[in-house]
Amino acid sequence: MNNIIIHATIVSDWPALKATRLAALLDAPTAFGASHASAAGFSDADWQQRAVSTPQRTFFLAFDGDKPIGLAAQVVANDGECHLIAMWVARQYRGQAVAQGLVEAVKQCAVGSGHARLVLGVAPENARATAFYQKQGFVFLPEWESLESHPHIQVQKMEWLAPA
């Protein structure tokens, strides 16, 4: 992770955010609540708006030099629950602490905005992802929901609690 930089997106990051999100949705179409088709339909103005951090939503990009290589986001749902979503790292950078850096950035963002708990949904058969999240301190909850983009896929909720 020598020259890997992770930062919250700003409006000028929108082309990198768009490219990375679309790459993620093509690479792992059944891992996300959104579909490639729906995301590809967003206008440039939509991507510019998404790139601006708000208390409700912050995207983080990992860069190797000027090349975007990973993505994660913190989103606060309508019920006030803070979620880690859109987690993805380009294949050739997996296993190199990029994902850990992205999760750490989301955790810091969540805690910094007053959330002591972070949740995510993962398909338990995605063994690599579940093992990774467990290493990051997430634990499974007995809660399941259908993936919005693929309702036949059930994801299990995991939670991380900030140290007291």
Structure description:
- There is one protein chain.
- With 164 residues, the chain is of the alpha+beta class.
- It has a domain of 112 residues: Gcn5-related N-acetyltransferase (GNAT) (Aminopeptidase, 3-Layer(aba) Sandwich), CATH 3.40.630.30.
- The chain has a four-stranded antiparallel β-sheet, sandwiched between helices. Strands 5-7-6 form a three-stranded antiparallel β-sheet.
- Helix 1 packs across helix 3.
- The chain is globular and about 40 Å long.
- The mean pLDDT is 93.
Could you name the ranges where pLDDT drops below 50 across 5 or more consecutive residues?
none
- CATH topology of the domain at 4-115, by name, is Aminopeptidase
Q: Roughly what is the average pLDDT, rounded to an integer?
A: 93
CATH class of the domain at 4-115: Alpha Beta
Please describe the biggest sheet, giving its number of strands, its sense, and whether it closes into a barrel: 4 strands, antiparallel
Oligomer: single chain
Compute the number of helices.
5
CATH superfamily of the domain at 4-115: Gcn5-related N-acetyltransferase (GNAT)
- Shape descriptor reads globular
Number of strands: 7
- Give the helix level as a range of percent: 25-40%
Report the β-strand fraction as a percent range: 35-45%
N-to-C series of helices and strands? EHHHEEEHEHEE
Radius of gyration from the CA trace? Answer: 15 Å
Query: Which strand order does the major sheet show?
Result: 1-2-3-4
- CATH architecture label name of the domain at 4-115: 3-Layer(aba) Sandwich
